[in-house]
Amino acid sequence: MKKILSVLLALAMLLCALPAMADTTYTGTADSQIGGKDAVTVSVTLADDGSIKEVVVTECKDTKGVCELPCEQLPKQMVALNTINVDTVAGATMTSNAIMAAVKAALENGGVDVTALMEKKEVVVEKAADETLACDVVVIGAGGAGLAAAISAEQNGAKVIVVEKMPKVGGNTILAGGAVNAVNDRSEFAIKQNDSVFWHYTQTLKGGDYQGDPELVMTLVSNAYDAIEWTKSLGMEWQGEDKVFTVSGGLWPRAWKPVMVAGTGFFDTYTKYIDKTDKIDLMLNTKAEKILVNDLGAACGIVCTGETGNTVTINAKSVVVATGGFAKNVELRMAYDAIWGTLDASVLSTNHEGATGDGVKMLQQLQADFIQMGNIQLLPLGDPKTGSLSGNIEHGVDSRIFVNKSGLRYGDEGGRRDDMTRDLFAQEDALMWIVMDSDTYPTGDELNNFGETANQLVAAGRAVKADTLDELAALMGVDAENLKATIAEYNRYCVGGDLEGQADQFGRTLFGQPIDNGPFYAGARVPTVHHTMGGVRIDTLCRVYNENGEIIKNLYAAGEVTGGIHGTNRLGGNALTDTVVFGRIAGESAAIGK
Ligand code: ADP
Question: Which residues fall within 8 angstroms of residue 240, CB to CB, at 6 or more apart?
Fold first, then answer.
C-alpha cells in the first residue's frame, strides 16, 4: 500500500513539475505613434480552454517614464478579465493601444479566433467608504516639486501624506530632458567656464525680461548646487561636473545631467526614499478637489476624490500645492496667453495629461494672488505628431543647427526659447529639421536625452540618416543645394570663419565642431506648449499670498504652479532646479510652520 502511495505521490509531483500540456504561447508586435515601427512586443499564453493565462510585454520602445505603467498594468487586467480589450492607462493612451494591438496581432497570427477575447468586460469598482485622515503636511501632486517637498517635510520631522491624481508619480518632471542648471561657485571648473552663481542669476533675470522676482531668482540660483548635493544625499547619481552642457535655451554650459534617463532618476530616488520611511504615505489615483480653510482663513487640509470615487478628507497642519502647470488645458492657456496670439488645440504640448491647472482653480477659490499668468513658454522642439520632447535627436546646443523646409538656417539656434519658437512659427508649416553629424552619434547607437538611440529613431521613422548631405536632403524633402550651402556656411563659422569671435548673421555665438562627419542625422520638430511660467504668488519661503497681499497661513506652493520666477521666458535647465530648490523650501516651511 505504502509503495503504491509513494508511486502515486511521485507521479503527482512529476505532473505538477511539468507545464500544462495545452498552454500555447504566441508572440506579436505592434507599431505605436511614439516608438514607431514594432514599438511593442508581447508574448501571450493561452490555457487549453482558450483563456488568457499570461501576457508579458517583452519590449516597449515608447517614452521612458510613460510606458512602464501600461506595460505592467494592462497584462494583469487582460488575465484578470480574460479579455484583450481593456481600459487604457490615463496619460499613456498610445502605449496602451499599442499593447492591445500587439496582443491581438500575436493571437491572430497564431490563427486564434479573437472574437470572444475582444469582448469588453464591465469593471465593477466598488466604492470604498469615505474616509478622514490626518497628518502634519499634506502635499498635492507627486511630481518633482511635490516629492521634493514631501521628503524635505519628513526630514524636518513631519508626518506627510502626498496625493497624486494620476496612477503614477512623475508629472511633467519625469518627461523632462533631466537637465538641471546649477553652478558650484567654489569649483575650479565653474571658474574656467566663466560661470558663477551671479552669472546664472543675471542670465535668468535677463532671459525673462526682468519680470522674475529678483529675490526668488536669487533663491533659485544660490540653492541650485545644494539641490544637486541634496539629491545625491538621497542616492541620486549624476554625471560629473565636467559633463555639464548647454541645454536648448539654457544660454550657458551649466546643465547637469542625471545618470538615469530623462527625469526618471529623480523618481527612482524619491520613491525609494518614500518606500523606506513610514512617515510619508503616497496615495495615487487620488485627486485633490478643494483646499480646506479654518475660521481664521488658514489652510487646514484638503478634500479629494479617492481611487474608487469615494471622498477622502485629509486634515493637516499645513498644505503644499505642487500641482504643476496648465499647458494641457487648452481653455486655460487660451484664456491667459499674453504672448502667442492663439494656443488652441492645434498647438501641441510636451506635457503629461495631468497638467490641467487644478492647482490654479483650487487656489482661486481662496482668493490667492496670481502673477504673470500670460507668460506661457513654447519650445521649438516638439514631435510633429504628438508635441512630446521625446524623439529629439539633439544633445546640446553647440553641435546642431535648425533648417527649414527649404534647407536653410533661419535663426540663432543658441538663443532664448521664445525667440527660437517665434523664428520657427515664421517658417513654412512651422516645421524645422535639427541637423547634426556623427560627432554626436559615432555609431548611431548612442542615446539621446530621452533614452532613445539615433538608430532607433531612424527605424521608427522619427529621424533620418544618410552618408551624404545630398541623400540626407532627399530624405528630408529639402533642396539639396540649399542644405549643402547652408552647412558649408555654418561650418566656416565653426572654425572661426570671418566672424572673429563675433556672432553670425543670426546672432549665434555657440559653435561646436563643423557638421562634416557623415553619416548625417536630421529630425523634424514643431512648436509645442511647454511651461506655464505664471502662477500663484509666493515668497522665498514658498508662502502663498492672497489678492490683498496677505499670507494665507499654513499654505505653501512650489514648482510650476507658482509664478514670478522665470518671467517671460524660462531658461532651459531652470525648471528642474526650480522643483528641487522650491520643493525643498516648501516642505521645510510647511513642516516647521514658517
Ligand atoms: P512640478 O514640476 O511643478 O513638480 P509636475 O508636472 O512634475 O510639476 O507635477 C505635478 C503633479 O501634480 C502631477 O503629477 C499631476 O498629476 C499632479 N496633480 C495635478 N493636479 C492634481 C490634483 N488635483 N490632485 C492630485 N494631484 C494633482
Answer: none
